[in-house]
Design brief:
Elements: H1 9-19, H2 23-30, H3 34-41, H4 49-59, H5 63-67, H6 72-82, H7 94-103, H8 105-127, H9 143-153, H10 159-171, H11 179-191, E1 194-197, E2 206-209, E3 214-217, H12 223-238, H13 240-249, H14 255-274, H15 277-286, H16 291-298, H17 302-309, E4 322-328, E5 333-338, E6 367-372, E7 378-388, E8 398-407, E9 429-430, E10 455-456, E11 468-469
Parallel strand pairs: 1-3, 6-9
Antiparallel strand pairs: 2-3, 4-5, 4-8, 6-7, 7-8, 10-11
Amino acid sequence: MPSNKLYIGRKIRELRQLQNVTQTQFAERLGISTSYLNQIENNQRPVSAAVLLALAEKFRIDLADISQSDGDRMISALTEALSDPVFESYRPSLQELKLITQNAPTFARALISSHQAYRRTSEQLASLDHSIGSATSTADPTPYEEVRDFFHFVDNYVHELDLAAERLATNLDLPDGNTSAALASHLEARHAVRILDTKAEEGVLRRYDPAAKALFLNPYAPAATRNFQMAFQIATLEMKMEIDAIARDAEFRTQEAAEICTIGLQNYFAGALTLPYQPFLTAGKELRHDLEMLATRFGASIEQVAHRLSTLQRPAMKGVPVFFARIDRAGNITKRHSAAKLQFARYGAACPLWNAHQAFERPGRIIRQLAETPDGVRYLSLATEIAKSGGGFNTMQRRYAIALGCEISYAADFVYADGLDLNNRSAFDPIGISCRVCERVNCPQRAVPPLKRRLAVDRDRRGILPYTLI
């Protein structure tokens, strides 16, 4: 298949279903036959330039947006899985991977899940010492990993919840009105729920008493956190049927995973309510994604703003494709999503050359980095430290770094690109996904060799590493 042919059947089908029209009606609007549309949607024929132009004219979509491969995340996950030595004899081409993700996404996910189970089992066996006979099998993914993958493969965007949250935000005059007052008034007027303060010794952000119809909030939490918790409570009271249906349709292995996903979906609704899609998308473009200014305009935290930017994946109305992550001081990635080509490793630590790690050294500042991954893709990466505390001097502060970025072709949409030499290749730091899959030969920060490379050891010569890669 020639590389210039465009097979985007799934995107076309999703766009048609979003318009709630039949294939016949959709084909008529595009000026093509129903049979041709059917072949396009099933990836039996590529999309012609005439059809792309008709899509742009009739449905006001961004051609670059719809022509972009929607399988980048899955291709990245497949590539990482197939780099394992167990697949040493199989080296698929990029075109072959694209065909698999476009035409058999369920099979691709099954292969990824199987490899994850294999990795977990292998890591468990490698760590066993005296407890070989007593370990409990971890071949199945943990509930948290299941939920993480669920959001990963829906592009961190839940259309039904996002639209419902935006409608409610419009009714409540958000974000133009007083968010705290509007959310509190809505809870009381519609659900007879009062907002009260928790006691200091409780140590919680939110506690709901259904019998008393009282929502207790930590009085020392920032306003953005209190607003989010009120929005979360609205999700539990008004979106239960929709959220339960989404979690049920995901067919999680365990009830724990379903419960975790339910909380994740309630969090999603809360974020979409306090940062409604179209006003937030418009403000992001107007303010060139200045995190501090967006946080001020919407009465949100910088983390909430950065996270919301990663969810702007509404069909035909997408925002800049960004990556977002939250990292603790030990290097654990506690939140992650990427709508860009950069995908975070599922196993092992993040690249130490990534500027996210520097945020802890320079608190209160947004650190900029121009970075290039081994595949030659260049990025603008931003990182800053955030601190969370629910009390005073004697309360332990939780510290994280958040990272946000985009491919360099979108850098001009960010105020943080100003003054950087985007055309100077030498200004870009070489980073990777993780040492386990990174192919860079002379990286001074390499922790472990890549899985698919053999090692040569010269006892009479020592470089940066005690071995060379073959």
